Amino acid sequence: MRIRLPALGREGLVLTQDSLWVRCRRCGDVAYGKRFARDLQVCVGCGLHQPVSARTRVEQLLDPGTVTPLAPVTTEEDPLGFVDQRPYPERLRAARERTGLDEAILCLRGSIGGVRVVVGVMDFAFMGGSLGVAVGESIAQAADQARREHVPLLLITASGGCRMQEGTLALMQMVKTSQALAELDEAGILTMTLVTDPTYGGVAASYAILADIVVAEPGARLGFAGPRVIEQTIKQTLPEGFQTAEFLLAHGQVDIVAPRTALRSLFSRLLAIPSVADQPRITCPPGRLVTRAGDLAVRPAGEVVQLARHTGRPSTVDYARDMLSDFEELHGDRMSGDCPGIVGGIGRLQGMSVMLIGHQKGRDLRDRVRRNFGMASPQGYRKAGRLMRLAAKLGVPVITLIDTPGADPTAAAEEHGQSAAIAESLRLMCGLPVPVVTVITGEGGSGGALALGVADRVLAMENSFYSVISPEGCAAILWKDPQAAARAAAALRLDARELLRSGVVDGVVLEPEGGAHRDPLLSAELLRHAVTGELAKLRGADSGELVRARRRRFRQLGLSRLEEAAHA
To answer: For 63, which DSSP code?
Structure first.
């Protein structure tokens, strides 16, 4: 007897006696229906994420027994008296009967991983998840509820764009929803979106992309114009994977691409980021931070340069793993790219949420080439700036780790505004209203390093260096001899001892004997103690005084004591 195997449709899976087995529409893999449901309707064969209903999404993500629907909104249902092949009210009735929803979004209160949250879940089965007045007002009221309770807002998108049957009034919902998220920004409330397939048009160009953290399911498509419209306009075939989550991640549009099975735990971690008022109090642990230049051994500058550049030195990714718990890397500048030469994300340092941002040179040769040897592009500095602004919004301290030969010197970097990106980073860090600690962990090369170096406390690892130019570059320009790099390094006084003496750094973190690469775990422990100690001293400081003291610190660098007194 032959059994007919239904393919997966766009409307979600319905298990009946006649459809105990399902076939993936993409790869043809066959799955037992109940197992397919346990796999959250993701094909085991090819990973295709089948669209699910709003109610199913709620069951998959939220803690059982915590869900309370928000009150439905009241709006004029047919403001235009619109009729196409059918009157608009008939289309609404049909959508309601088919989905069991009042509108294309389901808004509720609940918790994920025990953390309270307000959630808005769109359902594509309701008129293509189109954004009309009722949907826009539902999102605005959900944002109001999040602000009243001071809890995060999570929006799950699935839409073809604004609802044509409501005309310009539907278009105006892009402003309403964007404004709602702006008000949550002003209130310091975390916002997140989960982009599911598909998300297009006015939804993509408003609240879907404006959240603090944008997560996407694998293969989810997001864009303002659909691919068919684009191809018809430009008369060209689009590249494979265009507008998919993976494409968007590579082009800086989303922070994280996560499979459906990982979403619950991911959002649990992200939602657990406490506000500044909830940050645990930390104490200053015993450390080995040196604050007097005379207490440091004198080393040849050329030797320090070689140690700072050692390929085995711990990187930002290593320190994130060994110093922090629950670190979640965030990606993209939301404009054009995700520079792998700078990494950043949220994690916990002794229970306190921090934003860690740093240069990443890479480990083996292939990785170092991919990361451009830690030479960041404008997209990297813009990504860092975005994460710093998020830290400021949430009241989370910022830690930056510097290890770069310098900024990306290519023509492409110049075309994308390298100078402007560095300048904007300097200006932003000067005014961040949260504690900022910078550590030079290896090579501190010129403005590319300084772009992450404006902080309340600037520390240096014992075998690091910080310089206006590389020793080789200085030797080539002033000595006319690249072989004079060691002499140039000594003349530049770029080692940690000289940096401490001049006041460029406030303290030096001692390293294991022979360098940080000899014992990366011990190096991370020493760095953790030093950074935690500095943050403990800065905790509780008035934000205005933090900014004033930071600016005063850099204003006085290089001045004589008489001049310092005049500017104090």
So the answer is: P
How far is 203 from 309, CA to CA, in rounded Å?
A: 47
CA distance to 114, 262, 330, per residue, from 215 (Å): 20, 11, 10
Cβ atoms of 60 and 98 within 8 Å: the answer is no
490-549 pLDDT, tens digit each? 999 999 999 999 999 999 999 999 999 999 999 999 999 999 999 999 988 999 999 999
Entry pTM = 0.90
Structure tokens at 377: 């592009």
CATH numbers and ranges of domains, the chain = 1-49 (no CATH), 54-271 (3.90.226.10), 289-555 (3.90.226.10)
- d(C-alpha 380, C-alpha 448), whole Å: 10
Predicted confidence (pLDDT) per residue in 62-71, tens digit: 999 999 999 9
Q: How many other β-carbons are positioned within 10 Å of the β-carbon of residue 274?
A: 18
Nearest CA-CA partner of 321 in 339, 340, 347: 347
What are the start-end ranges of the E strands in 292-333?
325-330
Q: Which two tokens stand for residue 238?
A: 């689009």
Q: Report the C-alpha gap between 72 and 418 in whole angstroms.
A: 48
Phi, psi at residue 560, to the nearest 5°? -70, 165
Three-class SS state of 29 = coil
The count of other CB atoms within 10 Å of the CB of residue 295 is 11
Burial (CB count <10 Å: 0-12, 13-18, 19+), residue 482:
middle
Question: What are the strands, taking DSSP E only, across 102-169?
Answer: 105-112, 115-122, 153-159
